[in-house]
Amino acid sequence: MHMQHFNAIIIGSGQGGNPLARKLAKAGWQTALVEKKWLGGTCINDGCTPTKAMIASARAAWVAANGRQWGLRVNGYSVDMESIVERKNRIVADFRAGTEKRLQVDGLTLFDGAAAFTGPKTLHVQLHDGGEATITADHIVIDTGTSPQVPPVPGLDVIPWFTSTTLLDLPTLPSHLLVMGGSYIALELGQMFRRFGSEVTIIERAPQLVPREDEDVAAGVQQIMEAEGIGIFTGTEVQQAEQTSRGIVLHIHTNGQQHVLQGSHVLVATGRTPQTPALQLDKAGVQTDDQGYITVNERLETNVPGVYALGDVKGGPAFTHISYHDHFIVYKNLLGKESASIRDRQVPYCMFTDPQLGRIGLSEKEARQQGLRYKTASLPMKHVARAIETSQTSGFMKALVAEGSGRILGAAVLGAEGGEIMSLLQMAMLGGITAQQLREMIFAHPLYAESLNNLFLSLDK
């Protein structure tokens, strides 16, 4: 078997690996990109693109069903799941084709297959066409991502269940979707199927939904979900699953009592696990933590010099935009243009429920743990002119402001266009714009952004 040597090998065609491969090839490096499934990684094929496309369809269904609040009556609408899935698939195919086109760069070789280490900086690739390849490189970058994690619930192995990936291809509507998990993916998909017409019940082990968020944010999210008719169980353990003639049954323990939940379909959304076992990292000497995530330093380099990890496979924060930013860190360091580090970088994120939850910086829990002195600015969305005019008054926004300096430490925006408003606060934090300046800044009326005036005016109350 012929051995090929490259300047760099990227394992995984994700949102960090793809732009890094292109840039290295354009810089004159002989570069290999190995992908075992689809170009584009989780974001394009299983995550952001397909879910947000279907969430848009669910939003349209919800508007049709609730048009009376805007003075509209929509009679006789129906949900066509096959058409919704087909629309999603078209969008994904377009994105994937765009990725493939952008990777057609001189000096970049694509390997369609699964890679595994056979030694230091040496990989065996089992190609999908039945062939094999052995490739080596001076620098190797791992961007293999994660996959849905399945909890050890007795009986779950013998009943049909769905992940956030497989549920998106369901051509028929579940009559009652039972969702194991109460964080971002679970809530986005749970609300989506509720708006399509399914009964939905969400079961979360932690005492609150979105466990990493502040209690008031979690309470606001739960209120929004329950207002749409979604059943919520928090502090709840699923003890057993079984298939009966009436459907799927989950035996749960909550508030010291045993209950039985019956549904037609089960979504397992209890977390994700790194795709590292098949890589045989031990043969390359690359270290992982006890969960299988690759450990890296601030330059995203592993314990083996010249071997790097990008994106979710290195552990949190597990967001597409963080994966994309990771490639800048490695590229700058490999090309020797500057010394780049992930230290102190901003980590914004957004949960795409409706309304959205946009988050940046410290939560109140984190600020208290760090012993920081801060004030909290808060504003209900029902006091935002634009929200009133558009009948989107659910939720609230809040920001943490450092006492004395007026510096913004963090923000949570649970409301219409929450991610966009959060992004304005993110830029203010990066640019050192204070709460006082935002309170007096001129925004166009009547935008959601204008509400930042009143948000920081609340500090005077």
Automatic annotation (TrEMBL):
Gene3D superfamilies: 3.30.390.30, FAD/NAD(P)-binding domain (3.50.50.60)
Pyridine nucleotide-disulphide oxidoreductase dimerisation domain location: 347-454
UniProt GO MF annotations: flavin adenine dinucleotide binding; NAD(P)H dehydrogenase (quinone) activity
Residue sites binding NAD(+) per the record: 181-188, 204, 271
Cofactor binding description: Binds 1 FAD per subunit.
Binding site for FAD: 52, 312
Ranges for domain FAD/NAD(P)-binding: 7-323
S-S bridge residues: 43-48
Keywords, ordered alphabetically: FAD, Flavoprotein, NAD, Nucleotide-binding, Oxidoreductase, Pyruvate
UniProt xrefs under Pfam families: Pyr_redox_2 (PF07992), Pyr_redox_dim (PF02852)
Cofactors, names only: FAD
Statement: the UniProt record of this protein carries the keyword Acetylation: no
Catalytic residue list: 445 (proton acceptor)
Similarity comment: family membership: Belongs to the class-I pyridine nucleotide-disulfide oxidoreductase family.
Protein name as annotated: Pyruvate/2-oxoglutarate dehydrogenase complex dihydrolipoamide dehydrogenase (E3) component
Organism: Chitinophaga japonensis
Lineage of source species: Bacteria, Pseudomonadati, Bacteroidota, Chitinophagia, Chitinophagales
